[in-house]
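Me: I hope this is not a bother. Any chance you could explain this protein sequence and its structure tokens? It all follows right here:
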Amino acid sequence: MKTAIWTILFLAAATPAVLYFYQRWRQNKADREGLALYATVVSVEPIKRFGKTLPMAKITLWIQEPDQAARTVTLRSRIEPGQRIESGVKLAVVVDPKNPKRIYPAGPAGADRIVLTGSRSERRQMKSGRGVVPAGHAGSRRGNIPAPPPRRGGR
């Protein structure tokens, strides 16, 4: 009888750990093999639990996959204390190859394989590294993202 109780307690304690490591394995696999692209942030809502704000946010993203219709997805992710994510910002995400409904933030392996989608001007700006300033954000506190300085001389 005692063995059965201890076995049940062990399984109840080990299940969350196993699920966590399975999720991390699935996310790493998607980061290596999945479709990596930029998604536009539509809205960001802080997550609260028991009245306290957690270092997590519910991020609604607009994704345009190649040769498919655009769609809106929701992602829950941790946010660093000094990091600010506003609507209109482009984030690198990875689409799970086995289940396209699963979206993960892109890690280093996924960020190297980004597929540029969107309008022609957005793709040019993303390739140049200047980023994209969303419409209506030109007068924001941060202002426009400056272009790289022009090259001078024959160097």
Q: What stands out?
A: The chain has one domain: 2-128.
